[in-house]
């Protein structure tokens, strides 16, 4: 390519980029490289929806143990008045209780099918009323004390400086990358949602829509062969403005579309770029099949996203109703699932990712955490109803939603909040879930020394949870349900499968057991 032609190409690509109202349209080009792949004859549908709770969700105040021994440890660690009462002293000034009121907790049953939590009883945070209902109706399960592990790890193992541990424990960036890809900060590919779809890509008519992110890209969606397609809460990111104009002109918009579809130079780099742009335009046309946002069951006719009562949650702090950003994201996911059988989409396997931040509760724990859990609860209940009322029939057995977060938090009160932790508890929700139970062993809450040390083998300094289940266990369990082969999930040797650490664990523990 000559210098002159390079300049022409750069001018063409720059003009194309500047005509785009958002960089998301350009980012979607990366997801189109396999749009010509052929789908196998698969008539069923399954999807994973990851709700990532950014900041590190406080699992200790999400799923709370209320058996007598556990409650003594929990309340004494989080409430300075209880600590003072036990010690016969005056409560320390400047420390606010972050313990929940036991009477306000939402009680849940657990079948204890695995026999790991005998004699234990539990409650959910008071804001999780809809999740409690779904759980008690066997539509949701709790996976206890899960986090990044390279191999089974005990408290004693942590005294060995050579023992293999995940990189960057307690770091937001590192642990976000680890939870989503089993990699370290800076990882851009190998997300386990994307790698699951690498294995299943041939099942989709249009592979472009295999991995779908709402509003932002995440490494979880980015496989080695697949890349995320981005949608906004308003729907499709279109070339130009969403009203079909560029610089307010439909004529300019049409001209740009033509420019992006016709190769007038025949040079390889230009040809490849324009081919990709043409696929992007085709994808934009395909997504015209998305049903309107105001259509039932996910929307209310005659409203907008800002006024639709279905998308509003009640803020615990003031009792008022506000637009729920997580529900708005899940509305787009529901519309995408509703359009799965459209010929231009033809999806049989999909993964989606949505995000809710605000969980870094170093201070103002009770108020901030309650607000975020209220949003989570409303959004999960809303999405559950959307799936139940799909026009093609109840889609809940075909869609599994789960929560994730970069880490849990410490049990110890830091004054008015909690500090970074390791393990945490998460929800798995859907019609294919063996619900109404807690999977894995809930941590033992035993006596503590009053200085942040705990005698329990499950609680590290400051009440940080030492995980008993690895992220790899969740990958294997959900990947198996999606139809990924064991060879792809586990690999031939340690480090080669999607769940790359799983071969370091006892084979009998690979499947968490929460899916039918």
Q: Low-confidence stretches at least 5 residues in length (pLDDT < 50)?
A: 1-22, 33-42
The number of strands is 15
Secondary structure class reads alpha/beta
The end-to-end span amounts to 57 Å
Provide the β-strand percentage band. 5-15%
Give the SSE string: HHEEHHEEHEHHEEEHHEEHEHEEEEHH
Mean of all residue-level pLDDT scores: 89
Taking Cα atoms only, what radius of gyration do you get, to the nearest Å? 24 Å
Main sheet attributes: strand count, strand direction, barrel closure: 10 strands, mixed
Individual helix count:
13
Portion of residues within helices: 25-40%
What can you tell me about this protein's structure?
There is one protein chain. The protein is α/β, with parallel strands linked by helices and 516 residues long. The protein has 13 helices and 15 strands. Strands 1, 5, 6, 7, 8, 11, 12, 13, 14 and 15 form a 10-stranded mixed beta sheet that branches. A 3-stranded antiparallel beta sheet has the order 2-4-3. It has a two-stranded antiparallel ribbon with strand order 9-10. α3 packs across α4. The protein is globular and about 85 Å long. The termini are far apart. The N terminus is likely disordered.
């Amino acid at each position: 390519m000559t210098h002159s032609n390079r300049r022409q190409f750069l001018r063409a690509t720059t003009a194309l980029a500047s005509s785009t109202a958002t960089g998301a349209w350009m980012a979607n080009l990366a997801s189109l490289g396999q749009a010509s792949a052929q789908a196998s004859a698969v008539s069923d549908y399954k999807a994973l929806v990851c709700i990532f709770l950014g900041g590190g969700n406080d699992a200790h105040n999400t799923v709370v143990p209320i058996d007598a021994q556990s409650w003594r440890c929990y309340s004494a660690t989080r409430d300075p008045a209880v600590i003072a009462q036990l010690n016969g002293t005056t409560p320390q000034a400047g420390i606010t209780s972050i313990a929940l009121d036991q009477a306000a907790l939402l009680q849940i049953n657990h079948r204890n099918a695995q026999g790991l939590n005998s004699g234990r009883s539990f409650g959910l945070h008071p804001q999780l009323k809809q999740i409690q209902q779904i759980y008690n109706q066997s539509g949701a399960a709790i996976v206890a004390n899960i986090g990044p592990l390279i191999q089974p790890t005990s408290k004693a193992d942590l005294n060995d400086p050579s023992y293999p541990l995940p990189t960057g424990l307690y770091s937001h960036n590192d642990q976000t990358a680890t939870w989503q890809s089993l990699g370290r900060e800076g990882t851009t590919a190998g997300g386990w949602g994307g790698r699951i779809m690498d294995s299943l890509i041939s099942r989709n008519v249009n592979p472009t829509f295999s991995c779908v992110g709402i509003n932002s890209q995440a490494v979880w969606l980015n496989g080695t062969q697949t890349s995320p397609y981005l949608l906004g809460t308003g729907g499709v990111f279109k070339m130009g403005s969403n009203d079909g104009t560029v610089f307010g002109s439909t004529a300019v918009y049409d001209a740009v579309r033509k420019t992006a579809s016709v190769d007038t130079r025949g040079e390889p780099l230009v040809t490849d770029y324009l081919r990709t742009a043409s696929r992007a335009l085709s994808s934009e046309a395909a997504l015209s099949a998305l049903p309107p946002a105001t259509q039932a069951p996910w929307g209310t006719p005659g409203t907008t996203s800002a006024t639709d009562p279905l998308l509003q949650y009640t803020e615990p702090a003031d009792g008022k109703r506000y637009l729920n950003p997580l529900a708005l994201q899940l509305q787009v996911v529901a519309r995408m699932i509703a359009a799965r059988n459209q010929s231009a989409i033809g999806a049989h396997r999909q993964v989606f990712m949505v995000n809710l931040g605000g969980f870094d509760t170093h201070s103002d724990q009770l108020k901030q955490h309650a607000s975020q859990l209220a949003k989570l609860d409303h959004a999960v209940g809303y999405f559950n109803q959307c799936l139940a009322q799909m026009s093609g029939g109840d889609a809940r057995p075909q869609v599994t939603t789960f929560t994730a977060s970069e880490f849990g938090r410490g049990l110890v009160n830091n004054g008015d909040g909690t500090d970074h932790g390791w393990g945490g508890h998460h929800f798995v929700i859907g019609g294919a879930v063996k619900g109404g139970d807690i999977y894995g062993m809930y941590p033992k809450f035993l006596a503590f020394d009053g200085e942040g040390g705990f005698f329990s083998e499950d609680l590290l300094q400051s009440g940080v949870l030492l995980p008993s289940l690895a992220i790899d266990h969740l990958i294997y369990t959900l990947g198996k349900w999606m139809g990924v082969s064991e060879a792809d999930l586990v690999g031939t040797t340690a480090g080669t499968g999607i769940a790359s650490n799983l071969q370091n664990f006892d084979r009998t523990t690979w499947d968490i057991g929460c899916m039918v």
